[in-house]
Design brief:
7-stranded mixed β-sheet, 7 strands, 7 helices, alpha/beta, methyltransferase, Methyltransf_Superfamily
Length: 208
């Protein structure tokens, strides 16, 4: 059976790694994540929700004039995010919340953002549906995710090592983010893959 953690277990794991998480991700940031983050989140407008905001790596790239709310299941990760927001002077409302049960009314936000998170959600389709629920009609859902490579041998290697990788912080690196978004009822506007087909940049909208 594939490795799967409960929300409580994930919270504990991310609380434990929060102080060093940015260093853990440093290589991927250099390989392109930072550039892709910047290009994606600068499209956010109006009232913005970031889901699974982690340590706030996206905060420097949001445009001025937005009203930003950020949620994460881990208090430890949000503590780092709070320090980052304070350092760069970014106003943000930080809330501890589970992506699969967002504490907001329907159609609350103009833009919903999530990056590098679908791999960790215990029920990714439910989390993506929640993003669609809280996004207003005509709004945008902006996702930067990683998943199973479109290059055959790399994808097969990811499959073989998926359980071992998931043991650490619950990252299921062979999921198919685009297909999960479609299953959740989100409507694609534009989707592209990068770096051997592993990374997905998706612009979507909620179901009509």
């Amino acid at each position: 059976m594939p490795v799967q953690f409960t929300a409580r277990e994930l919270r504990a794991k991310y609380d434990a790694v929060a102080p060093v998480f940015d260093r853990m991700e440093a290589i991927m940031e250099v390989l392109g994540l930072r550039r892709w983050r910047r290009g994606l989140v600068r499209e956010a407008t109006g009232r913005v929700l970031e889901v699974a905001a982690g340590t706030g790596r996206n905060f420097p790239f949001y445009p001025e004039g937005i009203d930003l709310t950020a949620v994460d299941i881990s208090p430890g990760m949000l503590a780092v995010a709070r320090a980052r927001a304070r350092k760069i002077g970014r106003p943000v409302d930080l809330i501890i919340a589970d992506a699969e049960r967002l504490p907001f009314p329907d159609r609350s936000f103009d833009t919903v953002v999530s990056t590098m998170s679908v791999c960790t959600f215990p029920d990714p389709v439910t989390a993506l549906r929640e993003m669609g629920r809280v996004c207003r009609p005509g709004g945008r859902i902006l996702l930067l995710e990683h998943g199973r490579s479109s290059v055959g041998w790399i994808g097969r290697w990811q499959d073989r090592r998926a359980d071992r990788n998931a043991q650490y912080v619950g990252c299921h690196w062979n999921r198919e983010p685009y297909e999960l978004a479609r299953e959740a009822g989100l409507q694609p506007i534009k989707a592209r893959r990068r770096l051997l087909g592993i990374f997905h940049l998706m612009r979507l909208q909620p179901a009509a």
